[in-house]
Amino acid sequence: MTATDTGLPLPRTVRWREAAVVAAACVLCLLGGTIQVDDTLTAPPAAAYLVALASCAVLPVRRRAPLAALAGTTAVGVLVQPLGLLLTPPIVAPALIAAYAWVLTAPTERRAAGAVSLAGAALLLATAPLTGDLSWKDAGRMGVVGASPLVAGVVAQAVRHRRAYLAAVEERAARAEESREAEARRRVAEERVRIARELHDLVAHQITLANAQAQVAAQFFDTRPEQSRTSLRDVVATTGQALDELRATVGLLRQTGDTAEPAEPAPGLARLPELLDTFRRAGLEVAVREEGTVRPLPPGVDLTAYRIVQEALTNVTKHARTGRARIALTWHRDRVTVTVADDGPGGGGAPERPPGYGLIGMRERATAVGGDLSAGRRPEGGFLVTVRLPVPRGSGDDGGAA
């Protein structure tokens, strides 16, 4: 849509271009009008000025009404020969300009071709000599004049296709850019969720242990100072480990090129005894039972199993109001099942809090590696967390529980 279509004033450059087009059409009409019907060259007669004025007066409306401009310029061309002038390509220049404008803006190619063909046919018939035989010279002039609108239409159609192609390329580039931005946003969101999950597991576990150890130190501060000192040393060790793990996790947010200390391997079930020792020092008695043949797990599955046990025991320490928990690892041919159970009443008389993200995070971790997790209260009391994680075939012995 142009400025003229919206009723806005044309920019200065467009106004100058329009004036140049009209002036060029007038000059061509006057040059064509110097040729009389008898093929003599003379000064432009009054009819030539009339033709130039009438044809060029229609051109400024070709933006708003291109079909009307084409009809007007064609009608003037048809009247040229009766006015005593010879219809030549220069004198139909306004019709060519109008044909070009119409094809550029026509709603369909069929309508564009039909209007241009009619204009060409009208000019072709108007070029035929009124009297005498048709010479080769006349036939050539008729062909050139009749084909001129068609040539202008072909050029305009090529320009139209070119513009459509460039618009399609720009649209595809814009869609590709939007797709890249959407993909980047999706990956950033996934990374944020992953880091948030790691931070939750880390902070919830370590801070819960430090809190439990501090409560033990406070309870025996007066009666058993040695026990209090031991608990305080455990608090220092626990918080120091929490700071180290927090530093390693936050290091994931470093920009590319930043120097970072080498990160230690991700934890797995091989470090389960160390994890259980931290809970035992906090006063939670943990029993472990294992069935089947132990096999190595992929790093992602191994880390998931470790984090789920860590989060489940952290929830026992925070909410179960019990000092005992049981862990069972059952190895099957194609999966490992990990259960964490307690027999505590839960609640704990704590003030009402909004639900946390522990169970949500455990379920997301299990789903991310192709497993599934269920959690809920046991009929006999306590809480049970069960997670089933896949074990790839061929990793170690295929034996184990069925």
UniProtKB/TrEMBL annotation:
Residue stretches in coiled coil: 166-199
TM segment ranges: 19-37, 43-61
InterPro entries listed in its UniProt record: HATPase_C_sf (IPR036890), HATPase_dom (IPR003594), His_kinase_dom (IPR005467), Sensor_HK_TwoCompSys (IPR050482), Sig_transdc_His_kin_sub3_dim/P (IPR011712)
EC nos: 2.7.13.3
Ranges where the Histidine kinase domain occurs: 307-393
Keyword Membrane: yes
Keyword annotations of the record: ATP-binding, Coiled coil, Kinase, Membrane, Nucleotide-binding, Phosphoprotein, Transferase, Transmembrane, Transmembrane helix, Two-component regulatory system
CDD domains (UniProt xref): HATPase_UhpB-NarQ-NarX-like
Record-linked Pfam families: HATPase_c (PF02518), HisKA_3 (PF07730)
Catalytic activity: ATP + protein L-histidine = ADP + protein N-phospho-L-histidine
PANTHER family: NITRATE/NITRITE SENSOR PROTEIN NARX-RELATED, NITRATE_NITRITE SENSOR PROTEIN NARQ
Listed name of the protein: histidine kinase
